[in-house]
Amino acid sequence: MIKIEDFEVKKPKELGFDYEDAESYKELLRLHNGRTVLEQKFDGYGCIVDNRGAQARVYSLNKNEWNIDFMPEVRDALKKAKPFFAIGEIVGKPTHKGFTNLEEFAATKARIPTSLSSHAKEVDEESVRQLMRKFPLDLQIYHLLEFEGNDLRQQNLPSMRTDLENLVVGLENVYMVQQDVVTDPAQYQDIVLARFDAGLEGSIAKAVDASYLDKPLVSGTKSEGLRNTNWIKLKCNVAVDLVVLGTYLTEKCAKKGLPMSGILGGVRNGNRYETLIKVPLTSREKGLELTRRLNLVDVRSVQDLFEQKNVVYNQEIKKHKDKIPQKIVLDPDKSLVVEIEAMDISRSENYQSCGLEDGFAYTLRQPTFLQIREDKTPSKTTTTQQVQEMYKG
Question: How far apart are CA 301 and CA 260, in angstroms?
């Protein structure tokens, strides 16, 4: 019997591919010996589901237990299911044609409290019912690991799917993730791009013949435990060019001798700059280079931010001490431009100032530092208007 405390979560590996290039799909097929399963990628909360006891238990991928009473439609469906242990995703149920990944995530976020692990958190049943009508949820299962007492981790994908199909038949709000088996590069590309065009987050490519515990099929492929090329994440990211407005240094990074732990990136709006995102930085070399080339001054108090030349800050940043940079650039017009990649653009009540209106501002989800743009100056950075267009697109 699989124990939650000993269980290792397998996650897909991200590789750099040009999805518009047909040659990319030949390489992807080669990694899976010419036959790949393409699963739709969802944008909700990844989870571990243990339905082997008197009541189903649901955990985050970090093994923090969630209160299933916030998800009554999923809870009630699992009462009718056979005993199993699986990995899946809690997502917003499509409520109209053209339902996008952003709506999937927004529904999940609206339904499940920020403090997910708190069983002590009181559940207001009437509020939950009202939210359930507005933001219904589904459980999408993408890998069944144990079924009716049988450990399936050594089974290949088709065998596992047979058991998964037997599990979900007749259940409402619990599904097995959609799959397409492809051997043709052109078909591969068509499916991947069609999902991007439909506003979905992307796909997960899985080797048909590999089990959950297998090492990469192609010899010489880098393996990182269970995160290897047997599962590959294909998602459509956005890239923006931001001006560096400030830098961060956490105590943990300072103890390691790192020059910085992140940067505050901004966009241009006319002659001024607006903050967009705090970007983590793990490269010591890049941190040293940025420190050497930026004209930085210490932030003595939060008021220093509001006196920074040509920069607009959101007053809400005063409530978030960990979001206040330790240093800011003296003159943003002479700062550096960096390229940042992110999952997508979101708009919410946050502490950023990009497009700030009625408390809502734009920001990035899961940003990654790519490079310093030596070919660009702050006058050529991404603008607030461009961020707005990308968000609407």
Answer: 19
Q: Which two tokens stand for residue 344?
A: 């997508």
Q: Is 149 exposed, middle or buried (0-12, 13-18, 19+ CB in 10 A)?
A: exposed
Q: Which two tokens stand for residue 135?
A: 């933001």
CA distances to 34, 293, 306, 352, 371 from 336, in Å: 44, 8, 20, 20, 11
User: What digits encode the pLDDT tens for the residues 317-372?
Assistant: 999 999 999 999 999 999 999 999 887 889 999 999 999 999 999 999 889 998 89
* Closest residue by Cα to residue 87 from 196, 204, 182: 204
Which whole number is the average pLDDT over 172-190? 95
CA nearest to 306, candidates 219, 245, 375, 370: 245
User: Rounded CA gap, 25 and 181, in Å?
Assistant: 14
Tokens of 67: 């209160």
Q: Over pLDDT 90: what percentage of the chain?
A: 69
The superfamily in CATH containing domain 13-235 is DNA ligase/mRNA capping enzyme (3.30.470.30)
| Position 120 pLDDT exceeds 70 | no
**By the 8 A CB rule, do 265 and 329 touch?**
no
- Other residues' Cβ atoms within 10 Å of the Cβ of residue 270: 10
Domain with CATH 2.40.50.140 in the chain: 238-392
β-bridge partners, 211: 156
DSSP states of 215-236: PPSSTT---BTTBSTTEEEEE-
Handedness of CA 71, 52, 49, 159 (dihedral sign): negative
Is the pTM above the cut of 0.85? Answer: no
| 184 class by beta-carbon count within 10 Å (0-12 exposed, 13-18 middle, 19+ buried) | exposed
Task: Say if domain 238-392 classifies as CATH 2.40.50.140.
Answer: yes
Q: How far apart, in whole angstroms, are the C-alpha atoms of residue 167 and residue 176?
A: 9
Closest to 295 measured CA to CA, from 246, 336, 329: 329
Distance between CA atoms of residues 13 and 291, nearest Å: 31
- Count CB-CB contacts under 10 A for residue 275: 29
Query: Tokens 């097929």, residue?
Result: 29
